[in-house]
Amino acid sequence: MNFLDGTEAGADGILTLAKRALELRAGATPTQHPGKRVAAVFLNPSLRTRTSMEAACGALGAQPLVITPGKDAWALELEDVVMDGDKAEHVREAAGVLSQFADVLAVRAFAGLVDAEEDRRDPMISAFAAHASVPVVNMESALWHPLQGLADTATWVNHLGDDLRGKKIVLTWAPHPRALPAAVPNQVLLSAALQGMDVTVAHPEGFELDPQIVARATSLAAAGGGGVSVRHDQDFGEAEVVVAKSWSGFSGYGRREAEAAHRAELGHWTVTPDKLPASAGFMHCLPVRRGVVVAPEVLDGPQSWVLEEAGNRLWTAMSLLEAMLAE
Amino acid sequence: MNFLDGTEAGADGILTLAKRALELRAGATPTQHPGKRVAAVFLNPSLRTRTSMEAACGALGAQPLVITPGKDAWALELEDVVMDGDKAEHVREAAGVLSQFADVLAVRAFAGLVDAEEDRRDPMISAFAAHASVPVVNMESALWHPLQGLADTATWVNHLGDDLRGKKIVLTWAPHPRALPAAVPNQVLLSAALQGMDVTVAHPEGFELDPQIVARATSLAAAGGGGVSVRHDQDFGEAEVVVAKSWSGFSGYGRREAEAAHRAELGHWTVTPDKLPASAGFMHCLPVRRGVVVAPEVLDGPQSWVLEEAGNRLWTAMSLLEAMLAE
Amino acid sequence: MNFLDGTEAGADGILTLAKRALELRAGATPTQHPGKRVAAVFLNPSLRTRTSMEAACGALGAQPLVITPGKDAWALELEDVVMDGDKAEHVREAAGVLSQFADVLAVRAFAGLVDAEEDRRDPMISAFAAHASVPVVNMESALWHPLQGLADTATWVNHLGDDLRGKKIVLTWAPHPRALPAAVPNQVLLSAALQGMDVTVAHPEGFELDPQIVARATSLAAAGGGGVSVRHDQDFGEAEVVVAKSWSGFSGYGRREAEAAHRAELGHWTVTPDKLPASAGFMHCLPVRRGVVVAPEVLDGPQSWVLEEAGNRLWTAMSLLEAMLAE
């Protein structure tokens, strides 16, 4: 089984992994997989993802192999071209070789944020999935971040119980000095929809998510007894969870400069204490810009689940790899 | 025992390591060496070499320590000079310290490709070998790549049996957008000669290997019942193995621009399906430029041993370290 | 217990750790701490420190997690600011997350060497110590290098016995092509003073250490039965140990160019054989500029303890982590 957007495991499978993660957090002993190896390829920087994957491997008695192409390995070519340019290695060989060296292949490759259609194809993770002969884990791609989605689900289960159907969650856009990919908000939307939650996406006009992804999440949520709605203000209503994240609007894709000007007028979208419902938990995937995305009073306050959410990255990486290495 | 060009182990020793690698590949349990450490110093990028060495250590219960001087460690001085320049650490201290931290010291340092006589001295690996007090493994130097040679030998043994004397192998030059070092072709030539194979080196005029190395391989092959010949076309005859690789001509050493112009006229040296004898396996050390060095039809075709060859990097690293850590 | 300048362990605690390191070096089996993790954050390059910490973890059955912010992780913000600049992650979150992933958090962050008052606050290590919820180890900060101090103490104990009170040690300034931080000389001074040694700091006028640190060391040495004196020549008297190191003068802090001109006239401060008392051991923390800081005849001669000192980095890292992971 690949783990490319998290839906491969199904709603129940994700719940099982989330609950197992909470057991491991509570002290359960992970199943040991000595002699197994996980190759983790990083095309982009990472603190939580790399560290949690390495630590999860260690806890399972498996060995992590970290590769950073273009830095300590070769730059990768994805296309079927005559390779007379800068890229020294084709993903066919990289995936084919690493599949012989490891039992699971994990890849991190952000969106280019230039060409929407190219990012929609999610080229790097798709190429590894196409050419690997072992299961592939997405450690954040142009479109998805299912390890984050699994950690978020474990956090929701911990606070809201393991029947998440109809629970109210708001995913809100927030300001940021740079234009950012939508992998995390896409994933929050998808993971919440998969569990049948009642999801509201709040963003300024012009910052909509990819309509194909919103449509997919809407039908997924409906099938689970929930729903997806969009609004253009930060009235969080009776939300039980508020997840903040900045992202680039899909319609303005690639027009980063125009968007930056637009964004400068949106400082009032910072999540401040007055906006947060009294009963809601506050989440963000980290790293977070203090004072820009969210006020320090929220981030450091009693309603913040942010550090727990990051901590759950370790326990969910462990529960996922425990299951994948047993295959 | 150092492992600097592979001949230290002798023809029989290399065969023993190659056959042990195939046993490990077939499921034999490697001898465990808990508490042992291998320090691996990378002056150049690596995918297969680093990953296979790390994985081999893990499989043996030993710990890999990866060091990349000039990036996450200090730049190294090799010469006996007053150190008032950019280099912060002398190889005497680096080798002396790492010899206390690890049981085997592995080093990767490519040719400078500017000064033939300097590269002939193989300065970095030679300096580590001179100053280390533990065995030193060459993970590709200016002149040699014996881990590749061992993996290639295991691949030959797997397909051709363990008496390689007189087996026909062609090492062919191939086009490439950049001027490349000769460590890999030197090693293929040396490793094949060590086993007494019948080696043909095929390259355009002006792209000859170092005549000292050809002479050494010729006498080594003769001693083993084989031979070395050179030709300037790609008639592969009845070759059982064709190994492709681009390299810089020794006589044009360092004149990269002139060579680039020359190379532009040699696109017809790409290995295409029509050139490959029906019985021959195709090999390349990777990374490979698709459509430049070799046609995709060959690389992805049934005669390609390329992925097996790369996979054998793991098993041969394991058999070599298994033996070295037992010393 | 944090380990920020080494004095947290007390004079007796440091001696206990140093003696345990010498036992481990002699073959004692380290206590195993399976399932424990040490996160090691490197803001600056390192050979000995990273490698010895990784190897020490491995020997203890613990897992090292190496993070290099700004390279394979995010650049860190330390101040309470609105984060609309280049830095993507605040140390609050980095320390908070890593405290959940690891049992000990180790940090390396050199002095900026621009603003003396800022470096005096030792901002990065202080920020991690403030925000971590697990013990923090200083792997060299703006002010201190207690792992080096512990390895030096083990080296002193090995040669001079475990009652170091009144033993004569000279810390001498030495030339260097670049202006360097004072963390190592500060630490040598502090570690020797903590053991009640008789410390002489020898340096040219204008290259004094931070007077606050000299005052602190003076009272610490006096309490232990030793003392601290300063001189402006290289008469090493009857020193039993001579430690060489270049550093930037505190009064000239940040005026690197002026200091470089000044330094050009101080080539005669190189440690040469004629200066070294016949009974004294020579020490340097490495990396060392041969022929600039010290003559090769001293560095490679029979009185040099330099490689032993570096080797002790492994055994002292092991004794320290063995104790910290048992907490």
Q: How many structurally independent domains of chain A?
A: 2
| Mean pLDDT, all residues of chain A | 94
Determine Rg of chain A (CA atoms, Å).
19 Å
Biggest sheet strand line-up of chain A: 9-8-7-10-11
Ranges of chain A where pLDDT stays below 50 over 5 or more residues in a row are none
Helix content of chain A: 25-40%
For the sheet with most strands of chain A, the description reads: 5 strands, parallel
Output the structural class of chain A: alpha/beta
CATH topology term of the largest domain in chain A: Rossmann fold
Instruction: Give the quaternary arrangement of the chains.
Output: homotrimer
Most extensive interface, chain pair and sizes: A-B, 30 and 29 residues
Within CATH, the superfamily of the largest domain in chain A carries the name Aspartate/ornithine carbamoyltransferase
